[in-house]
Input
Amino acid sequence: MKQISVIGAGTMGNGIAHVFAQAGFSVNLVDVHYSQLEKAIATIGKNMDRQVAKGTLTEEQKQTALKNITIKTDLIEGIQNAELVVEAATENVNLKLDIFQQLDKYAPQGCILATNTSSISITKIAAVTNRPQRVIGMHFMNPVPVMKLVEIINGYATIKEVTATIVELSKQLGKIPCVVNDYPGFIANRILMPMINEAIYSLYEGVAGVEEIDTVMKLGMAHPMGPLQLADFIGLDVCLAILRVLQDGFGNPKYAPCPLLVNMVTAGKLGVKSGEGFYVYTAGSKEAKVSERFL
Ligand code: NAI
Output
């Protein structure tokens, strides 16, 4: 496999294009917004500079990798020779169903259609195509160039050959693949989100403060980041949306999002991306201070 298309050039799309290009694949990076494509190329360049400074990439390898990426705003043009498409557009069911209908119509017949969705059913996405056996979840972690895991999700109809190809490909990217089945939240978010929700409930009920909850989990469980800070990094709106998927998908009240999380999202306190969540983030500073609201 040589020719890959990545749909969506946001946080995840630029990382996915980065790792494929660095591994020698020819990548078409597609987004509806040209400005996002320009931003993505600048981000990839900056992230590769960091690798060069660390000595994990040479300047020459960086230049070759950057040349492997072509940017496109036209989806049909961006996928016409693709052997694999990895969709990493905005997490919205209707948007993804629409994109997959187009991918199915315009991508070459043998092309594998993968999605980086964190929570939408692979089986549901596959069902709008005429090739459900070639649709699969390829769930990278953020930041993609750094995180080793790729959670590979078999839809109900995904065939073994396709899973094997994606496993092999993930290894070629220097990643460690883990194959799971398509149930709400897959494995990563099914386990992570209830933990984050429980941390928020503990704060809401006054069991402990923000720093205490995060410190217990960091020092006691050897987590590199506490659950409340991790929620800020993921985005509180994203956490809420995934909990709703778990709640709807299983119909089990244990997944009901904590009212504090719902309130924070309604108030626009989304974590790092809005500058405030459980912590306050100042641009240019690496330090996070607990939000005054929780002191
Ligand atoms: P983002 O909001 O940073 O980027 C989404 C990009 O998709 C934007 O550049 C937008 O212009 C583009 N887009 C929207 N509609 C499009 C279309 N029709 N065609 C082409 N491009 C389109 O989102 P992010 O965070 O990169 O998430 C992308 C996917 O990755 C989502 O499915 C999300 O659930 C998943 N994901 C996100 C993680 C994260 O930590 N941010 C982690 C793992 C998965």
About this structure: The chain has two domains: 3-181, 189-294. The chain has twelve helices and ten strands. Residues 34-54 form the longest helix (21 residues).
